[in-house]
Amino acid sequence: MAVIGKPARGAAAFVLACSVLFGAPAVAGAVPARPADACVAGENLGEVANNFISRCRKGSIRQVFPGEHFGDTLGFIRGCGLRSCNTAWKLLNDNRFKK
Question: Model pTM?
């Protein structure tokens, strides 16, 4: 590890450089920013539906998902109240389309 005024050398410098270059957590065992199990619609209300579908749902959901809501956030879809919003919200939470 580096001491104030002294650069890190050897293995410590290599580990530090790799973590900076490849985005690895600085602390061993640190929780990643977006874990793989973060694919619950209710926990991603600020995300745009199209991005959430790409990341967390099978492509076949696009055949039945209301097209006017691809650009809406999940929070908007959840509270919209329109029939198409209700359909979209149910599809986003349907286990048939989970990856």
Answer: 0.64
